């Protein structure tokens, strides 16, 4: 069991207060993900942004806050925020996944450029890896970087399901410079750029994530935009992506747990005698504990993804089960009468498709078991 | 079961499979006094044929399917006996819709390759398709053979789950609002307005 110490309890409590503000904005963002002006200056969004920017790159008045800590600290806070609303949190302009990757592979000058673009709190970042044909198989990507003959590159290809892709001001884009897995590289882009075409996809739910499709038609990329040049060859591309994905998987598991708890508590508030409520709450709390344990494990062995896959598979499955229960628990037409609950039942389904479907997680888990990781 | 209901169930399934959710729903609520039958404060109905000033609540995804939610007084917790027949016809329509999308998913998976092999040949995928077909066959028998409200509510719960299992076969494409799989999301909302559950099992 992970017992929260005083520091973790303080993180939990701070984020719990912010969750209520996220929830109050949830339906407006779901209705119109483009109408963000009224949300961008909120103290909650400032908290989220600053907690994911290293102190050295923050505005002076926020530099005194503690730096981003362990994975467990991050997940304890995120479960609380996600209990407010996952899509509203994802709608916040912040370093997000691109930040995790730039921290791993960026040199100091690239980090300064990246965080500098995000400093105004009005600029989104994107992490562009997924492609329509390649699905979850990053090594099958076809986007390519070809030398421009003057020390830079030209980017060709397309990406799909990229959060904030159509409104990002800065981002990380993956493409290959050759055929081998080691030739998959990432570049830091500052937008707009010629040849960069982007459009938001109309999604069923999680609309604050602003999932988009991108097309690159000879986008000029300067030579110094290539990430990881200062690192050994084996640590330049896919390695960083895999490490980033372990982190992302934990965030998705936290999103599933947070929404599960939110749905259970929503039902408890509106129908205290709902059948099965104590069991639902018990299962959601068990999933929270599993996600905590997986985060703590990732802090010890960041390259080992067995338990994070277990957490993602288990928590997303639980969240879709609880969504069905919650819809039934509020009686006939409960989903029509309770739009916030109905929104959550759509949102949790998105988690299935992000960073590996359940079938992909099953394969990771079985491989982890064969490697002895289930007994660690 | 009356002769009319016995004839209606396969027709509801056929219409939804061939023409989609709204057609199946139209057949399910045909000849039904919606206000006097619907258990909750809203009832899913086809938009076609409604008067322009009918009190409806709209939903972004349901709009695409031609389905709206008509304000109703609500008959729960003492709905009329006719509600069971509507629920059975609607379940048949939802079975037809799942079968419609399952056929499309199989076509999608046959054309999609991962690791030089069509996804349709991956064992986990094949298993999911077989499970879906088995559940369809079981549900059809249950809906045709049982008039117990509990069995009917169970069938709709399982149709929610089955729709999700089929939807996942499309991958992230099934989560785009203009994809045909959108109908499976709306089907959950439709069922939610016409079925009385005892709170459901977690």
Can you summarize this structure?
Chain A: Belongs to the acyl-CoA dehydrogenase family. The complex is a heterodimer of chains A (376) and B (202). Chain A is α+β, with helices and mostly antiparallel strands and 376 residues long.
Overview of this structure, please?
Chain B: InterPro entries: AcylCo_DH-like_C, AcylCo_DH/oxidase_C. The complex is a heterodimer of chains A (376) and B (202). Chain A contains 13 helices and seven strands. By secondary structure, chain A is α+β, with helices and mostly antiparallel strands. In chain A, strands 2-3-7-6 form a four-stranded antiparallel sheet, with no helix packed on it. Chain A has a three-stranded mixed sheet with strand order 1-4-5, covered by helices on one side. In chain A, α4 runs antiparallel to α9, α9 (277-300) packs antiparallel against α10 and α10 (306-329) runs antiparallel to α13 (358-370). Chain A is globular. The model of chain A has no long low-confidence stretch (mean pLDDT 92). Chain B has helices spanning 3-19, 21-29, 34-37, 60-64, 82-111, 123-145, 149-168, 182-194; strands at 42-46, 56-57, 67-71, 113-114, 117-118. Helices cover 60% and strands 8% of the residues of chain B. The model of chain B has no long low-confidence stretch (mean pLDDT 94). Chain B has a single domain (3-28, 77-194), classed as Butyryl-CoA Dehydrogenase, subunit A, domain 3 (Up-down Bundle), CATH 1.20.140.10. Chain B is globular, with a radius of gyration of 17 Å. In chain B, the strands form two sheets. Chain B has a three-stranded antiparallel sheet. Chain B starts with a helix and ends in an 8-residue tail after the last helix.
């Amino acid at each position: 069991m992970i017992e929260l110490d005083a520091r973790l309890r303080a993180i939990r409590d701070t984020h719990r207060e912010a969750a209520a503000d996220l929830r109050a904005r949830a339906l407006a963002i779901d209705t119109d993900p483009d109408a963000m002006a009224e949300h961008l200056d909120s103290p909650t969004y400032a908290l989220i942004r600053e907690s994911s920017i290293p102190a050295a790159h923050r505005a002076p008045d926020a530099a005194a806050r503690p730096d981003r800590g362990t994975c467990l600290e991050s997940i304890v806070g995120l479960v609380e925020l996600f209990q407010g609303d996952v899509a509203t949190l994802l709608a916040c302009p912040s370093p997000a996944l691109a930040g995790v990757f730039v921290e791993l592979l960026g040199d100091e000058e690239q980090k300064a450029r990246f965080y500098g673009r995000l400093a105004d709190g009005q600029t989104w970042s994107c992490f562009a890896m997924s492609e329509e044909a390649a699905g979850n198989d990053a090594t099958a990507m076809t986007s390519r970087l070809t030398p421009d003959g003057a020390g830079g590159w030209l980017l060709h290809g397309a990406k799909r399901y990229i959060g904030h892709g159509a409104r990002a001001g800065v981002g990380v884009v993956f493409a290959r410079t050759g055929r081998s897995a080691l030739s998959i590289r990432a570049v830091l882009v500052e937008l707009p750029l010629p040849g960069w075409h982007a459009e938001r996809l109309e999604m069923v739910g999680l609309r604050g994530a602003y999932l988009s499709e991108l097309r690159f038609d000879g986008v000029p990329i300067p030579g110094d935009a290539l990430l990881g040049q200062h690192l050994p060859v084996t640590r330049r591309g896919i390695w960083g992506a895999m490490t980033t994905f372990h982190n992302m998987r934990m965030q998705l598991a936290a999103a599933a747990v947070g929404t599960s708890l939110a749905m259970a508590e929503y039902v408890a508030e509106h129908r205290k005698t709902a059948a099965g409520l104590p069991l639902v709450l018990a299962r959601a709390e068990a999933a929270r504990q599993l996600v905590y344990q997986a985060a703590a494990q990732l802090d010890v062995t960041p390259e080992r993804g067995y338990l994070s896959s277990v957490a993602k598979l288990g928590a997303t499955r639980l969240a879709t089960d609880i969504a069905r229960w919650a819809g039934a628990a509020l009686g006939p037409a409960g989903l029509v009468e309770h739009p916030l609950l109905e929104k959550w039942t759509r949102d949790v389904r998105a988690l299935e498709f992000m960073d590996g479907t359940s079938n992909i997680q099953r394969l990771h888990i079985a491989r982890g078991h064969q490697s002895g990781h289930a007994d660690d | 079961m009356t002769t009319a209901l016995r004839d209606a169930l396969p027709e509801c399934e056929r219409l939804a499979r061939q023409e989609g959710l709204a057609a199946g729903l139209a057949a399910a609520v045909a000849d039904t006094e919606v206000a006097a039958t619907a258990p909750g404060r809203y009832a899913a109905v086809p938009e076609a044929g409604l008067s322009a000033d009918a009190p409806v609540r709209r939903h972004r995804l349901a709009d695409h399917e031609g389905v709206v939610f008509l304000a109703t007084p609500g008959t729960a917790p003492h709905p009329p006996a006719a509600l069971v027949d509507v629920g059975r016809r609607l379940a048949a329509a939802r079975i037809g819709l799942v079968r419609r999308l399952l056929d499309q998913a199989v076509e999608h998976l046959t054309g999609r390759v991962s690791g030089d092999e069509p996804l349709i040949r991956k064992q986990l995928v094949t298993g999911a398709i077989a499970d879906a077909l088995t559940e369809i066959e079981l549900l059809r028998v249950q809906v045709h053979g049982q008039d117990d409200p509990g069995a009917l509510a169970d069938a709709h719960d399982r149709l929610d789950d089955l729709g999700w299992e089929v939807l996942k076969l499309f991958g992230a494409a099934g989560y785009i609002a203009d994809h045909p799989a959108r109908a499976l999301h709306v089907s959950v909302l439709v069922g939610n307005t016409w079925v009385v559950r005892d709170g459901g099992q977690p």
